[in-house]
User: Which sequence fits this backbone?
């Protein structure tokens, strides 16, 4: 299934995190939404996000690798790759973009946002059951 997804991420302590090529970025305590898409194996992609141990490649890997961050929820929706940016635009109305985060190959301001709540996502997306690896 081609799908777009939104990771709802809790930042538990304000912290500066080195995000690959972006350098050091300050994250305040709060709820963030990250938008991505999977063109083939959605479950595999989500499981990769949920795993702390991995080779850090995407901006989101650096954020999720930090001990102060945790994925709380995952919302999914059917859609081709360009829907990813449409979803980013929608979330951008409600949230504050972290400049250039996850958007090196498109024109969006960013694909990560500080949001107040995730209620608006429940209206047109489906929540996925997730399981954190504890080992
Ligand atoms: Zn985009």
Assistant:
């Amino acid at each position: 299934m081609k799908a777009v997804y939104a990771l709802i991420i809790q930042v538990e302590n304000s912290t500066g995190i080195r995000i690959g090529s972006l350098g050091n970025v300050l994250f305040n305590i709060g709820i963030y939404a990250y938008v991505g898409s999977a063109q083939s194996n959605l479950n595999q992609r989500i499981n990769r996000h949920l795993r702390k141990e991995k080779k850090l490649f995407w901006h989101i890997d650096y954020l999720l690798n930090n001990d102060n961050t945790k994925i709380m929820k995952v919302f999914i929706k059917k859609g081709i790759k360009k829907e990813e940016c449409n979803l980013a635009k929608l979330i951008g109305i409600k949230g504050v973009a972290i400049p250039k985060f996850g958007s090196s190959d498109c024109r969006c301001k960013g694909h990560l946002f500080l949001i107040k709540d995730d209620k608006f996502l429940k209206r047109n997306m489906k929540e996925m059951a997730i399981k954190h690896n504890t080992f």
Summary: The chain has a mean pLDDT of 94.
